[in-house]
Amino acid sequence: MPTLVTTEAAEGVAPRTTLRRLLTYAWAAILLFSVVEVVTHYVIRSRVAPMSDWRAAASFVRQESRPRDLMLAVPLWADPILREVIGDRISVEDAGRSDIARYDRIWVFSIRGAESDEVPHRAPNFTREFGGVKVMRWDLPPSRVVYDLTAHIRDAEVSIFENGVARPCPFRQGSGGGDGGGLSTGVLTPASRFICDPGRPWLWVAQTVNEDLDLMPRYCVWQHPAGREAIRVTFRDVPLGTRLVLYGDIFSEHERMLERGPVDAVVRVNGNEVGHMVHRDGDSWKRMEVVTSPDGSNATGEVTIDLSAADPHLRTFCWAATTRNGERSEDAQ
Predict the structure, then answer these.
(1) Domains held by the chain: number
(2) Per-residue confidence (pLDDT) for residue 28, from 0 to 100
């Protein structure tokens, strides 16, 4: 005799079947997620260049390197690894470079196929792979840099103008300092510097490393304006070349707010104004190029850089400058 299934029993079967299916799908999803996680972990680990590859690449480049070589890592986040394995060949000036003008060659340590935007737009002169680290070298034309004002700031004279009268800012050797240089602490104040006003401790002039709006380190000369009247740096007997290239910016934490006034940087050669940079918040590491000797002569002369600002509050300006000869299309990359 056939078995009769009541309506109540049939209604109980459907939910149990649906529940079993849902549990099956859930376990399948968990298993699939585990497989994906294992595969993803394997792919990530397979793309990580071990330190042994970095050390092998660094050992080779260290043997081949020359004094005017630049070394960099791509992607940018790999830079701390590069400094660990070959930091003895990377100076503060190299790490905080403005451009590639003063270098003869560039060594690039690349992982994961990353490319550098600082190298010439052509194939490298040399390529070799060390496991997961690819080393490339670009040979550059002879450097056109004649004189580095940033490097010679100690040879300059510094003065502050008050009511139209220039007052010297004395150089103090080992006069304290050490403040800043950490997270949210501002620029590192060097122990030896030109001091323009002890009552306003930010009015000093010296080399330091500033952080630009893109959080890149910039090796430069700190020259905080005092107001509408200038703080002036004077270099005498400078080999002028044919042009002067000046970069400048404001400390990143003060510039990113986009709420304060501009800074004026005026460059004069033998008393004649040849360039005027107006740096506004948002400009970051700004470049200005001016003519110093139109006839291309090897003359020497006096170069002055004046810094002023109508409102000097938090106008933490820092600049780097060089004189150069001729034209070199790659020196701004």
Answers:
(1) 2
(2) 66
